[in-house]
Q: What sequence folds into this?
């Protein structure tokens, strides 16, 4: 536990002690050890399978909550809490500190299952399950799932806040709001797990017995396997993109970080325009990869401080076509490939490489063009000093309708007005701090460095 801050270590110990208090049975209350042992073995086995190479679960912890929730619906609260204990304590953890992570996992699950079991018992859920009263069982199970999710969210938020010193996933947002968003994000998947756990409990109490209850896990296992394969494929996509971007950053050090910022700005525009999540992700890829064609441009031209000759300009203006050749075989990029090729086209037809105008320019390229120009103006380069964000936005407005799509410009202005723009500081900022700002307009130099 030495890797955790002192306050986080104390928090983990308090959670573990609170979990120990929940485990002893109340006076005179029997413990159904056979059911506890069967469910505990099932939970540990499912968690072990989720960590195997067959499934390779992307999020190891709490994969099979249906088994834990089935225990909360079937058993007394203290017995249901025991179901989580062996798997949480005995299964391996991937990072240090190992003991603290085991204690945390066990304490968190024990408290969440115990609280869910208490609510389920208090609302008459055990009687509804025993009588196979499906409407009543749904209502009581829903209340238990909400409590289960609430306990997990509060405990997770607490450990994140104490470890990182910030509200969970909230950044500058107040902690209650960040915790509320965490709760809402967790509630939908846990509701699905709760329904599966309720089906297990109803079948367990039916004439078919525990064996029938196990069949509920088969579709859950298949769906989890499919999700794990999707996650693997997505991770491979991310690794491909990361390798390409790193190669560009190594070749052109003055643009280090530019690709990620353009991807972020493209994502902000896409979200502001109401695009669906899948398309937002594709446009983020487009922004990240828009300059990948620079790998085919001589480094001396990319880092040249003086003005470019007409021949040098023509060479640099080939980079969109180089980039398109590099990525056109990557099927998952979709319309991002068109953005790589056309992000230097202008609405009035004066851009390159093909001089497209207006609606001939793909929408993805119009998004990336605005994001690219905005980051180029707000980043310090060897030949230009960073402009303030309001000045850059005003320049985009001035060029809207001639160089840039007014819809995209308006979307970026609204998004930045609401959330602000806080890009990471890159290594090139210090190198070019003393370079005076040029008098040239935003469209001066090719290669996205406007």
A:
């Amino acid at each position: 536990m030495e890797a955790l801050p002192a306050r986080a270590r104390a928090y983990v110990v308090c959670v573990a002690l609170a979990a120990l208090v929940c485990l002893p049975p109340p006076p005179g209350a029997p413990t159904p050890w056979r059911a506890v042992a069967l469910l505990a073995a099932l939970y540990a086995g499912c968690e072990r399978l989720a960590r195997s190479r067959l499934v390779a679960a992307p999020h190891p912890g709490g994969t099979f909550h249906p088994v834990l929730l089935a225990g909360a619906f079937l058993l007394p609260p203290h017995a249901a809490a025991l179901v989580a204990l062996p798997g949480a304590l005995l299964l391996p953890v991937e990072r240090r500190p190992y003991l603290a992570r085991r204690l945390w996992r066990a304490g968190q699950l024990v408290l969440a299952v115990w609280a869910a079991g208490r609510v389920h018992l208090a609302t008459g859920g055990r009687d509804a399950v025993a009588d196979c009263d499906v409407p009543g069982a749904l209502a009581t199970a829903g209340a238990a799932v909400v409590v289960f999710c609430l306990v997990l969210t509060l405990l997770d938020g607490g450990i994140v806040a104490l470890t990182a010193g910030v509200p969970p996933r909230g950044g500058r947002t107040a902690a209650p709001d960040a915790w509320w968003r965490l709760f809402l994000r967790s509630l939908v998947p846990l509701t699905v797990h709760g329904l599966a756990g309720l089906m297990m409990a109803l079948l367990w109490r039916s004439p078919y017995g525990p064996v029938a209850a196990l069949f509920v896990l088969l579709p859950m296992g298949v769906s989890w396997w499919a999700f794990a394969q999707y996650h693997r494929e997505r991770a491979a996509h991310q690794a491909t993109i990361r390798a390409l971007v790193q190669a560009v950053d190594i070749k052109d050090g003055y643009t280090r970080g530019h690709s990620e910022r353009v991807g972020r700005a493209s994502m902000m525009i896409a979200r502001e325009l109401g695009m669906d999540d899948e398309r937002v992700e594709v446009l983020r890829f487009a922004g990240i990869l828009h300059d990948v064609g620079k790998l085919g441009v001589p480094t001396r031209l990319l880092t040249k401080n003086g003005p470019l000759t007409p021949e040098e300009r023509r060479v640099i203006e080939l980079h969109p076509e180089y980039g398109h050749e590099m990525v056109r075989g990557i099927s998952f990029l979709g319309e991002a490939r068109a953005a790589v090729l056309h992000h230097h086209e202008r609405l009035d037809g004066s851009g390159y490489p093909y001089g497209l105008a207006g609606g001939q320019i793909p929408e993805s390229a119009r998004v990336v063009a605005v994001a690219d120009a905005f980051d180029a103006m707000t980043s310090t380069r060897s030949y230009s000093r960073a402009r303030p964000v309001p000045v850059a936005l005003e320049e985009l407005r001035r060029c809207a309708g001639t160089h840039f799509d007014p819809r995209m410009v308006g979307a970026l202005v609204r998004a930045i007005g609401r959330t602000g723009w806080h890009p990471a500081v890159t290594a090139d900022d210090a190198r070019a701090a003393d370079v005076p700002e040029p008098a040239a307009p935003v469209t001066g130099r090719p290669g996205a460095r406007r």
In short: Residues 380 and 386 are 4 Å apart (CA to CA). The chain has a mean pLDDT of 82. The chain has two domains: 6-215, 232-431.
